[in-house]
Each structure stands twice: as C-alpha cells, then as structure tokens.
Amino acid sequence: MKAIPRQPKPAVLSFNFANERLSTLQSICDELGIALNNITAAGDPAAFSLSLGDLLSGGHVSLQSELPPEAKLALSAMTFPEEMYVLANLPEETLNAFLKTARERDLWIPLKAVATPTNAGWKPMALKLELVEEHAAMQAAIAEQKAKQAAEAAKQAREDED
Known about the structure:
Elements: E1 11-15, H1 19-32, E2 35-39, H2 52-56, H3 69-78, E3 84-88, H4 92-104, E4 112-114, H5 124-161
Parallel strand pairs: 1-2, 3-4
Antiparallel strand pairs: 1-3
C-alpha cells in the first residue's frame, strides 16, 4: 500500500509584526486555520539568515549566548524593520479570504508574497528587496498611466475649446 503524501499546512511567515498588528494578524490566521510564525529583528535576528523554505519548515538557528561584534554586525545587515509576510500553501479560497480580511482590518502592507519553489531558497532580505523593487515598478507604472490620462484629458479639453 502506498503512503499518501502529507500535504503542507497553510501557513503565514511574518516578519516584524508587533503589538496590535500582530494580534490582528494572529486573529485572522486563527479564524482561517492558518499557522502563523512571526519573526522579529529584535527577537530572533539569526532567523533572517535562514531561507524562507527553512523558516516555513520550522527551521531555527541556535545562538551562543554572546556573539562577537562582527557576527552581530553581519546579522544586523540581514534584518530589516519593515513588516512583511509570506503566504504558504493556502488554497485559493483561503488566500482570497485572508487578503480580504487583512484589508478590512487595516492590515494592508505592500511587502507580501506567496511562497514558491523559486523564492523558497531566498533569505528574507532577498525577498524584501525583490518586493520593494516590484512595488516601485508598479507605482511608477500607475503614475505613468495617470500622467497619460491627464495628458489625454488636457488634449480633449483643448479640442473641446476650439
């Protein structure tokens, strides 16, 4: 008899959520049956050195009680203060419900992604940089579209005057 492969459980890997925002995120995850793993730069900076795949699999880094200054500097270079989350193994309906509920509860953030085989090997900082670049490109495209619309409206207004 063949064993049925275990399906990964839906999970959210979040970074730097705290206080009320973390409570809101936890509440959404609880309501939708999603596991939440929140990592903070202050609480677990070494976790930022692991890949997203390792973090989603429950990986962790055990540190000596005191690190040399150069190790602390290296770890601090891998962390970031912004909130970010990665959604993993969410069925489409659950993904849509998560995003809708997050918007309704003012938990919208630009740094969010879905876990993929490609980004599973990335460290959190690499994903953050990619998301920042994508967000900037999208904002530039939106601004360009608005500028085109404004130019068209101005042209139309001039033609209407004539």
